[in-house]
Model the fold of this input.
Amino acid sequence: LLLQSAESWNRYVEQASGPIDLSFADLYGADLRGRRFVECNLTGARLDTANLDGSSFTRCLLTGASLTDASLVGCEFDKVELRKASLERAVLRNCTMRDVDLTGSRAAYVYVATSEFSGCKLRQVVLDDGLLDSVKCSDVTVADLSAHRLQLARVTFLASVVERCHIIEGE
Done:
């Protein structure tokens, strides 16, 4: 169902009587545009090169998931665990992240633009060679972040905590 069509999957999610287990699913390169993931367990899922444009994730677990080279344009994340996930070379544009825990995630070469983060936790995140452009952060906790050659343009922090960050050769 997940791979058939967005309409079929979204209907299934609406009718599901409990959490949906997609843990360790191999969705490499899948076209998952417009899918709604509600209370889905995607722990350890392989979503490398997947197209998730226009998708939404609500109360989902993506701990240890791999989203390397994934396209996440226009996505919404609400109350999502993305701990120890890989977002390397992922593209996040026009995204909204609310109450997302990215602790221990790797996001080298990530591109984040015109996006909003609120109530998120970015602890021990690696953002080497990343680019953040026009990103609004409110009530965000950033701690022990490591970033070599991170480029920041028009990034704002409101009511946020930023501590013990190591940005080397960044702009």
